[in-house]
Amino acid sequence: xxxxxxxxxxxVVARTGLTQAxxxxxxxxxxxVDVDQEEEPPLDDEPLSRRLGLDDAAWKWLGRPDEHxxxxxxxxxxxxxxxxxxxxxxIHIHVLAGDRHFITIHxxxxxxxxxxxxxxxxxxxxxxxTTLFLFLQGVLETYRRAxxxxxxxxxxxxxxxxxxxxxxxxxxLAQLRQRAxxxxxxxxxxxxVAQEILVRRRMADHDLSAERQxxxxxxxxxxxxxxxEIEALRDAARRAASSYASLIADQQNVVxxxxxxxxxxxxxxxFLTGFFGMxxxxxxxxxxxxxxxxxxxVGLQVGAVIVALYYVLYRxxxxxxxxxRARDAAGDDQP
Length: 335
Known about the structure:
Cation transporter; Methane Monooxygenase Hydroxylase, Chain G, domain 1; 3 domains; magnesium ion transmembrane transporter activity; transmembrane; Beta Polymerase, domain 2; alpha+beta
């Protein structure tokens, strides 16, 4: 277990143990504590909150693995489990903000925590509530960065598939759609509980300062913005998948069109071949010379092929070319 204590407002970071962190939490006017439980949190009957000196039974779930997203407010202290985008995964960080301390608990290294602690000497938050909102704003930024990266990749795939369609693009689009759905499932519970607790705090605390009300509204606005961006990413992924399906459908239409042309050419040939292959009196009595065979046998087949080609080309190519030229001319005539 790695415990880091940040003395505020200096922002000096020191590595300590739980005992020293507990002493800092009890004596300091404002301190930030980060607890990294590493990959395997220690099995201990005593809750981590009690080991940190938080004797309130309401926080006994702090640091407990497999906790779902939650936000609670009790006796002037806010705590919750916050989903954070870390690489290609969504992890959960336990957060507690009291009057004189701000605590984060997680398993393994988290880029957001390192960035947040590194920015503290520049940000210099005056109290734990401001620190909490700074941290939550960083949480939302992890989603926005992941959404932007996925959105740009969807647009690149959509542009590439129009240039040259490849089967690999389908697999990547499916992964991006799954990524968007994963982000939505991870963020939606937090958006719901955060909205609930912020509205409740504004309604219950009539003496809430204007600064904290502004921070509440900013956080609510950013939460809604992230939801809109996630939905836009899902729409973009669906649109790209529809475009890929349309390209496949167009290619199939071209193949079907070619088969139709071949069928219209060989169908009359097959009919004439079968007709002249019949052994009845008219054919055996009339088609007795080479000239009559060339006139009826070969001539009718050549005529049928010419008529079929004219019909097919007129219906598919010449007519479409004429209509497109007419549309272009009409477009040029318009002011």
